[in-house]
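Continuing the batch. This is chain 6 of the set; chains 1 through 5 are on the previous pages. Same settings as before, nothing changed between runs. Recording input and output for traceability.
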Amino acid sequence: MVTFKFGNLICERWILGPLEVNTYLVYDKNVENALLIDPADESPELLSHIRELNLNKILIFLTHGHADHILGVNFFRKKIPARVMISAEDAPMLADPHLNLSSYLGEDLAVEPAENIATEGQKIEIGSFSGELIKIPGHTPGGMILVFPGAIFSGDTLFAGSVGRSDFPGGDGRALVDGIKTRILSLSDRQVFPGHGPETTISEEKQNNPFFRTFFSF
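Output for chain 6:
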């Protein structure tokens, strides 16, 4: 587990699941609500940590509906007071092993419907911090990122030095790259926390990401 701090806002990165997904626990030490982003596997250690922190109101935010990012949803839903949020476009993936690709991994996964449907521009409040949901399709039809003043949780949309795959069902490479250009790289510099691999920054991706280096060279 690696910890990042933005004032009172704390972000912990837990690498979970067979595909080493970055699962994030985001909370303000002064309040009891928290975000659990993309719980990628069952983790008694993370569960124990959440309980030790007395985080009693958990929003499980899913950046998209692929199996490797939702493998732990059922586990945490049963163990802690939590509700699940995902976009309308990706919501059908939760219960469908073909849509969430788990059938291709050899073990069908079905998750109960989400309690909350994420919408473009919706605000997520953690203590005194406010994040905004932004939809960027391309990796999946309803992929979403969460933007805080100092941080972006980009799921499988943007990685350090790369972008998400668009060759899965429902993918669209042009929409993905265009969305990153206009909706992420147009923002002021801040840290980017992706769904896999190390964190990065907007300025780093403008300068070094081969998908965008030429675009931002003028």
